[in-house]
TrEMBL record:
Residues 1-20 have a biased composition (Low complexity). Residues 1-31 are annotated as: Disordered. Pfam families: Pyridox_ox_2. PANTHER family: 5-NITROIMIDAZOLE ANTIBIOTICS RESISTANCE PROTEIN, NIMA-FAMILY-RELATED PROTEIN-RELATED, FLAVIN-NUCLEOTIDE-BINDING PROTEIN. This is Flavin-nucleotide-binding protein-like protein. It comes from the Bacteria. It comes from Streptomyces iranensis.
Length: 233
């Protein structure tokens, strides 16, 4: 991992991640943010990240669930899963897997008068770093609880914890939030002045996700109430 730019790191406020060569965009730099609260909010609202790494000289990108605990992200999977095997584990000389992890939300479809200026409103986070296996039992437990609670806050305490057999089949990777950036686009289309009189509709179609009413499992006891953390969704 390249070292952060010394000047940027020195000038970065305490609540911001220091910019690096890999986190400063080459285009639309005004949309970039290194603010921790902005980054955390985007991460906490998402469910699926895309985890990119190199295998045998070729790029691989996998969608997976994740969870955040402070300045760390966790992903998990079968002990036989490719990235989890490649990251190594106890006894490895240098356990760890260089990765790039991304999370993106689509907030609107931006329709311009010209095809060239069509866009989307979005919020995204890109994290560069080395994913390392979690072997400490207490950290593994906290990470797995965080993965469950990331999907539905409060669910980890309202479900059976993983047993020894399940834990033995599950691997967890940790990615520290150190080399991080967010990028956000908001607002309407950027039509050229000469296109403003064209007769094409222009504007934004908002995009949002919603939750439906919880659907009980077929074998759920009829008198089992819907937990409060679900009704709050």
């Amino acid at each position: 991992m390249p070292a952060p730019d010394a000047t940027a790191a020195t000038n970065a406020p305490d609540n911001a991640y220091p910019p690096t060569d890999r986190t400063v965009p080459t285009r639309s730099r005004e949309r970039a943010s290194y603010d921790r609260e902005v980054v955390h909010a985007i991460l906490d609202e998402g469910y699926v990240c895309h985890l990119g790494f190199i295998r045998e000289g070729a790029p691989v990108v996998l969608p997976t669930l994740y969870g955040r605990v402070g300045e760390r992200l966790y992903v998990h999977g079968s002990t036989g899963a490719r990235p989890l095997r490649m990251a190594g584990g106890p006894g490895a000389e240098e356990p760890g897997l260089p990765v790039c992890l991304t999370v993106t939300h689509v907030d609107g479809l931006v329709l311009a008068r010209s095809a060239f200026h069509h866009s989307i409103n979005y919020r995204s986070v890109v994290v560069h770093g080395t994913a390392r296996p979690v072997t400490d039992p207490a950290e593994r437990t906290a990470a797995l609880d965080a993965l469950v609670d990331h999907v539905v806050p409060g669910r980890a305490a309202d479900s059976r914890p993983a047993n020894a057999k399940e834990l033995a089949a599950t691997a967890v990777l940790r990615l520290d939030l150190e080399e991080v950036s967010a990028k956000v686009r908001t607002g309407g289309p950027d039509d050229d002045a000469e296109d403003l009189e064209l007769p094409h509709w222009s504007g934004v179609v908002p995009v949002a996700h919603t939750y439906g009413a919880p659907v009980p499992a077929d074998d759920l006891a009829p008198d089992t109430p819907v937990p409060g953390y679900l009704t709050r969704l």
